[in-house]
Amino acid sequence: MNPHLSIVVPAYNEAAILPITLDCLRGFLSHQSFASEVIIVDDGSTDNSSVLVGEWQRAFESLRVLRNSVNLGKGASIRRGILASRGKCVFVTDADLPGRPEDILRLLEALRDGAAVAIASRRCAPMNSAPSRSRFLASIVYRALVRVILKLPLRDTQCGFKAFVREPLLPVVEGLRLDGFSFDVEFLFAAWKRELPIREVEFDVVERRPTRHAILLQSPRMLMDLLKIRFTPGRPSRNARAQIADLGPSRSPSEGHSLTRDCDLPRQS
């Protein structure tokens, strides 16, 4: 029987944080009534992430591991994990699990209430509470560009804490082209264009480590990615086509308080 929930975690050189994340997920899932699986996609790590996750498999029965022979990028790894998933619902998180495991239930509740996609949206906070001033300002600029270029009416596209119903979203995932950090916004834009209901759920970020990614250094590439998403007709990248071919036909899955901020988005006209 296929699980109700698949959790996909992309990981590149994450040996320091993965034990914490896996321990949180194992403890959380052990108290749930639904069946689940956790899929770690090791994106060609050069540290001992691969060995560490292999050791965890012996104690974590529902843990699956996929390994990229080379570093393909966050987007490519998430896409591979989703295409290999078997759950009715899929939850995607960054390797450092930026929320409480219990917040996963809030996203699943939004899916049960009719959303096809539920995303965690970080609460507004002053600059002095941000990890760094440059990151705070870059985040504001990027969110503005998403709205101006894509007209996407979402407050927070980049938080690594998202859930969706697998079956209607598989065609979306199969058509994605970007392999890097712009995967999130490309995924959400493609779902919105298909008029799939998206719901934002406000939550508090859990900082389990300092951020590792210099968003300002990624900014020129991320701007170009936004333009590609907006103006280039959708077709899978070579990596995506290879992953789809390897997996063959999609498998059909079997039959998981009010939200603080719960808004269905206006649809594309």
Beta content: 15-25%
What is the domain total for the residues? Answer: 1
Instruction: Characterize the overall form.
Output: globular
Number of strands: 8
Stretches with pLDDT under 50, minimum 5 residues: 126-130, 240-269
Trace the largest sheet across and list its strands.
Answer: 3-2-1-4-6-5-7-8
What does this structure look like?
An 8-stranded mixed sheet has the order 3-2-1-4-6-5-7-8, with helices on both faces. Mean pLDDT is 83; it is low at 126-130 and 240-269. It has one domain: Spore Coat Polysaccharide Biosynthesis Protein SpsA, Chain A (Alpha-Beta Complex), CATH 3.90.550.10. The N and C termini lie far apart (40 Å). The protein has helices at residues 18-29, 49-57, 74-84, 103-112, 133-150, 166-174, 183-193, 215-231, 238-247; strands spanning 5-11, 36-43, 63-68, 89-93, 117-122, 161-165, 198-203, 262-264. Strand 1, helix 1 (18-29) and strand 2 (36-43) form a beta-alpha-beta unit. The protein is 40% helix and 17% strand. With 269 residues, it is of the alpha/beta class.
Write the layout of secondary structure elements.
Blueprint: E1 5-11, H1 18-29, E2 36-43, H2 49-57, E3 63-68, H3 74-84, E4 89-93, H4 103-112, E5 117-122, H5 133-150, E6 161-165, H6 166-174, H7 183-193, E7 198-203, H8 215-231, H9 238-247, E8 262-264
Parallel strand pairs: 1-2, 1-4, 2-3, 5-7
Antiparallel strand pairs: 4-6, 5-6, 7-8
Helix pairs in contact: 3-9, 5-8
Give short descriptive properties of this protein.
9 helices, Spore Coat Polysaccharide Biosynthesis Protein SpsA, Chain A, disordered C terminus, eight-stranded mixed beta sheet, single chain, 269 residues, alpha/beta
